[in-house]
Amino acid sequence: MALTGSSVATDQTAEGSRKATIGKRVNEAGARRKAGSGGTIRGAELRTAALFIAPGFLLYAVFMLFPFIQSIYYSFTDWNGATVNMPFVGLANYIDMFKDPFLWSAGWHTVVWIVVGTSVPVAIGLLLALLLWSNTKFVVFFRTLYFIPFVIPVIVTGIVWGWIYHPLFGILNSMLEFVGLDSLTRGWLGDPNTALVAVIVAAIWGSFGFVTVVLFAGLQGVDRGIVEAAEVDGASWLQRSRYVIIPMIAPVLTLVTAITLIGGFAVVDYIIIMTQGGPGTASEVLGSYAYSKAFEQNSVGYGATLSILITVLSLVAAVAFLRFRERER
To answer: What's the predicted TM-score (pTM) here?
Structure first.
């Protein structure tokens, strides 16, 4: 009987081992099937993502990446833009660029444009966005009103402001004469001391609406309960805006400032439309100078060199600004 009981126990142990082995193999097979299925799903997702990305990337490559690579190549040539021959000159364009006195003048004007043309529309847009957010009456009307200058084509804006600045029948001089400030009237776009500032004012009018709408959209994510709590604690409107609201929209504020900053480096449209860089070179900026060299003076190689400089400067400025903002946060 003892022997029989031992045999039964042995058989039960063996049976349990076989079941455990079978269960382990089943689990391993299931894990392999699951992994294979996961790999298939992941591969399908990647193919779908590539399918959606491909058209946009193709357009980007054709209209952005390829022309940029071409510009880099042109910057090493003395091409006039008309002939097939493109004489390779190496770094000669870059050496001549830093010896060009007009470059430094245009660079200084670009710095003025970036400082004034970035800070003023951002400040105006932020103030208007805060006022709109604080008062819910007529929000849609005023938001549309502020955004209209941004959607108007730049060429229309430039022409209209050219009429405003006209020395004979411009509304600005007429208003100054009406209030008895005749001594301040002048040809605003023809005076070297006021031409650049006059164009910047027109550009600010055309861009502050974009800043206002973007920041107003960012304000929709602000918790009004926190703002109301600060008001109950005795914080003024200015204190609530500075210490509560603005920190909450810091990422949006950084984004819109970076966009405006980069746009300041590439500005050319307002200059071409309103002053063509004049009088003389009083309103010439890097963008308009590069345009003039490439398409008016048929020096495409040198114009491409200036465009590469603008690209590098804008990237450096944008990265430096973003890092500064991240450090501040």
So the answer is: 0.81
Phi and psi based region of residue 225 (left: phi greater than 0; alpha: psi -120 to 50; beta: remaining)? alpha
H-helix segments, 83-236? 92-99, 101-134, 139-151, 154-164, 171-178, 195-219, 224-232
- The C-alpha atoms of residue 225 and residue 93 are separated, in whole angstroms, by 59
Say yes or no: 158 and 291 in one domain.
yes
Q: How many structural domains are present in the chain?
A: 2
* The dihedral formed by the CA atoms of 50, 55, 59 and 62, expressed in degrees to the nearest 10: 70
- Report yes or no on 86 lying in a domain: no
Tokens 């600045």 locate to 165
Tokens of residue 126, six digits: 């932020």
Residue range 224-255, pLDDT digits in tens: 899 889 989 888 989 999 999 999 999 999 99
What range does the domain containing 109 cover? 94-328
Res 138: pLDDT = 74
SS3 call for 85: coil
Q: Are residues 156 and 9 in the same domain?
A: no
CB count in 10 Å sphere of residue 113:
25
227 lies in the same domain as 108? yes
State both tokens at 176: 């100054």
Name residue 221's amino acid. Answer: G
